[in-house]
Write a structure and sequence with these properties.
Layout: H1 3-16, H2 19-26, H3 30-44, E1 49-51, E2 56-58, H4 60-83, E3 92-99, H5 100-117, E4 121-128, H6 134-137, E5 141-145, E6 153-159, E7 163-167, H7 169-175, E8 191-192, E9 201-206, E10 209-214, E11 220-221, H8 224-232, E12 238-241, H9 242-250, E13 255-257, E14 268-273, H10 280-296
Parallel strand pairs: 3-4, 3-5, 8-11
Antiparallel strand pairs: 1-2, 5-14, 6-14, 7-12, 7-13, 9-10
Length: 300
């Protein structure tokens, strides 16, 4: 009896709750199960269970063996799934993290479509106001925007994402249309406060020209949805991702300004721990998500 089969046997025995129940499940007699357990305990040199044919109870050593063994067995199984992922069918639990706005609008519908195609996958979607640490929170996939400094993660760009300068037609009729980035200093700008001391600093490029503008306004928020609503109400000028404002521009509720200047892209990435880079459920989900977003979001 090797260590892995010992672990599998013990976990099944505890799950069944009795020697006789496990014996019925695997088609042997209760004495055969009892003998197998005795051999395991002899090899380890400790008593794992107190038992009868009807009932078992774990000793302290048994609880340690079960807890640690379950984790090790899961890691071994994940390793085997990774190695054979090229022919594996996606299955099991997939944990995904995304931000609130993009997660609600695009990731949640994509997951619904993914589940219909791959019914053996169970998906947990966590939406947060800030990106979570995948390793610490045991997520399989995170959706991120812009630069990705964490070298422990593998990143794959899902779709290009431009950022546009926008305002409502009412605001522009009242305050005028900026012709140059420097004109923004004279405008009410809606500032998104992020995890960056340089919030409110907008970087523009036009060919070889670059211009950095420190904007100001009486309204600022750490929530992008709030700043978007203020722009729709005519409160000022904002910078938002194309995916967030395209529909409002199409309906005439917002208008782009400074269209011949560009801002740094905030491209959309899927990131995942290096150990999962060949996992079938992660690989297939990211392929599916990239295709779904390409079809859903109009790309330049």
């Amino acid at each position: 009896m090797n260590a892995i089969s010992d672990l599998e046997f013990f976990i099944r025995l505890v799950k069944q709750g009795s020697l006789s129940a496990l014996a019925r499940e695997i088609g042997v007699t209760p004495p055969a199960v009892s003998k197998k357990l005795l051999l395991l305990e002899k090899r380890l040199g400790v008593r794992l269970l107190t038992r009868t044919t009807r009932r078992i109870a774990m000793t302290q050593e048994g609880e340690i063996y079960l807890a640690t063994g379950s984790q090790l067995l899961e890691q071994i199984q994940e390793m085997e799934r990774t190695v054979s992922s090229s022919r594996d069918v996606p299955r099991g639990l997939l944990k995904v993290n995304a931000t609130f706005g993009f997660g609600r609008r695009y990731i949640a519908p994509a997951i619904s479509a993914f589940r219909r195609r791959y019914p053996e996958v169970e998906v947990q979607l966590d939406l947060t106001d800030r990106p979570m640490n995948l390793a610490e929170s045991a997520f399989d996939v995170g959706i991120r925007f812009g630069t990705l400094p964490d070298q422990r993660m593998i990143a794959r760009m899902l779709i290009s994402n431009q950022r546009w300068v926008c305002a409502s037609p009412d605001y522009l009729a009242r305050a005028g249309i900026p012709a140059l980035p420097s004109d923004l200093r004279q405008h009410a700008c809606l500032v998104l406060r992020e995890n960056d001391s340089a919030y409110g600093t907008w970087h523009f490029t036009k060919g070889r020209r670059q211009e950095t503008v420190k904007v100001h306004g009486v309204l600022s928020s750490n929530d992008g949805e709030a700043t978007l609503n203020w722009a729709l109400e005519g409160e000022g000028i904002l910078v938002r991702s194309k995916w967030d404002v395209q529909s409002f521009i199409d309906r005439g509720r917002l208008a782009r300004v400074l269209e011949d200047w560009t801002l740094p892209n905030a491209d959309i990435y899927a990131i995942f721990p290096q150990r999962l880079h060949l996992s079938a459920k992660v690989r297939v989900f990211i392929d599916f998500l990239q295709n779904h977003l390409t079809q859903t979001i109009e790309t330049p």
